[in-house]
From TrEMBL:
NCBIfam families: heli_sec_ATPase. Residues 410-424 have a biased composition (Low complexity). GO terms for molecular function: ATP hydrolysis activity. SUPFAM superfamilies: P-loop containing nucleoside triphosphate hydrolases (SSF52540). Belongs to the GSP E family. Residues 410-443 are annotated as: Disordered. It comes from the Bacteria. The lineage of its organism: Bacteria, Bacillati, Actinomycetota, Actinomycetes, Micrococcales. It comes from Knoellia locipacati. This is Bacterial type II secretion system protein E domain-containing protein.
Amino acid sequence: MSGVSDVIGGGGSGVAAGRWPGVETAIRGGRAPDAGVIAELTGEVVELGAQGAAAEGALLRERVLGFGPLERWVGAPDVTDVLVNGDGSVWVDRGRGTEATGQVLEPAAARALATRLAGLARRRLDEAQPWVDGVLPGGVRLHAVLPPLAESGTHLSLRVPQRQPVGVEGLRRLGAVGSELGAVLGRVIAARLSFLVVGGTGAGKTTVLGALLADCPSDQRIVVVEDVRELDPSHPHVVRLQGRSPNVEGVGAVTLVDLVRQGLRMRPDRLVVGEVRGAEVRELLSALNTGHDGGAGTLHANGLAETPARVEALGALAGLGRDAVHAQLRGAVQVVVDVARTGGARHIRAVGVTRWTGAEVVVDEAFVVRPGGGDGSRGVVTGSPDLDDVVRGPGAARLEALLVERLGASAAPRPDAARSPDAANSQRNLGSSGAGIRDGRVA
């Protein structure tokens, strides 16, 4: 008798052969196959014996509900990304940069896999909609592009979720933050200061944001708005809102702008936008300026200093002028957390505080992890930094003043300024960093 896996290729007979077209139709229609149908298909091979049935059942699930030829990479504990290029070559990232696996998919197989995974993510992928962004069962994030957009062939990207660290302590155990900078971040959360987590692609922004949200008090209601679900904070009271693509008629889309507006009506103690990348920045800044303290989000930016310009560019998408963006940003965001990927390791690189210059908002370094290895003076860093080698910057006094205002005198962060002469010099020069704090707004 043919195995159930043969049915997938067009062989087989009996109930399995009759059931398979329905499974295939469900997938193409964006619906996951019914678990009972999968069990029935598996039952067709009982005469193969217990071991044979188990093997066929596992193969069926892999090909119908799993990742097919990519299963071994997605299931590997150290793999964070699985990538298929247009030529069929398969690449993975184990946290040290991409590396070739030597596996090559046939063009038809790559396209069929991308189309099937899109269906499992309840998304559409075809000639009329040649790209897709979605989340698969189990939390794997899917992105795929078909020709002619990708000229060489189907491109498939899978972001594999890692075990999320819980709280600042989880980040410390992960090696993403030292104890001193972790204490600062813990007080930022306790003080309900609004903050942005910034960094490049794959730097760990979502991981850091999720961990920090886990430290929010359990009696606070967190409303999380995302285009594609990625944030999974370990917190007892999280409400998740997720965007939606338009249907085949081009209607029915739900944008982040829509979701932020709805989230504000849900009595949030903290409003969080998973990734701020468009016109929703207007609604977020407005919300954080109207009593919704402690809000947060992630933002693609190359560092603390570039953050205001990035927010300004996004504000332009919402029709806001430069002056309006900076006026809103002044009262909306107090802290910026910069994350980076150095030598394959993701870590928090710096914490900054916003400052109003009289014409615009700038972000001053408050606490910075000294780069490790290489020639730091020339911007070349090859080694992993000592996460407890923290240098105080010109914004440290201002951040301390904010924390004291919110939490009291015992709450000010006090990283050891005596770790280096540079740190001591920074501390002596703190008085030149600008004015203080008035009514929670950076002056």
